[in-house]
Amino acid sequence: MELDRAVEFARGRHQGVLVTIRRDGRPQISNISYLMDPDGSTRISVTEDRAKTKNLRRDHRAELYVVGDSFWQYAVLDGTVQLSPPAADPNDDVVEGLVDIYREIRGEDHPNWDEYRAAMIAERRVVLNFHPASAYGLLAS
User: Fold this and answer.
1) How confident is the model at residue 38 (pLDDT cuts 50, 70, 90)?
2) Which terminal Cβ of the chain has fewer Cβ within 10 Å, N or C?
3) Quick one: 141 exposed, middle or buried, by C-beta within 10 A (0-12, 13-18, 19+)?
4) What would the mean pLDDT of 45-56 be, rounded to a whole number?
5) How many independent structural domains does the chain possess?
6) Is residue 102 one of the residues assigned to a domain?
7) pTM of the model
8) What residue numbers bound the domain in which 43 lies?
9) Does the pLDDT at position 59 exceed 70?
10) Is 13 within the bounds of a domain?
11) Rounded CA gap, 97 and 103, in Å?
12) 69 within a domain of the structure (yes/no)
């Protein structure tokens, strides 16, 4: 499957499964919400203490599985990630990135941005930037 076609398919959605690699080499999967940028890079809000984040700090390889309108329609994007540091201040670049992810995925503002920003720090939220390099899957419905 061509990467451009898989990116275009995934761009129309916001939910997927992120696959990371455990220390012993087995896969670890997580249901996630994501925001795909026009260039195909994908932003995901994660917490510093989760298995996926620990796995990705050790091994930057990941896959993003996105299902279509039927079980038989899907794309898997294969790539690497970059991770921000955990959110530390209500107005730092990480929190601003998390605000942007929220707005773009939800299509609306949060009812209380001060509360949201404080929660991002308390939860030690991180912005995960996924950069796809190749893809496979089946887009026939």
Assistant:
1) confident
2) C
3) exposed
4) 97
5) 1
6) no
7) 0.92
8) 3-86+125-138
9) yes
10) yes
11) 10
12) yes
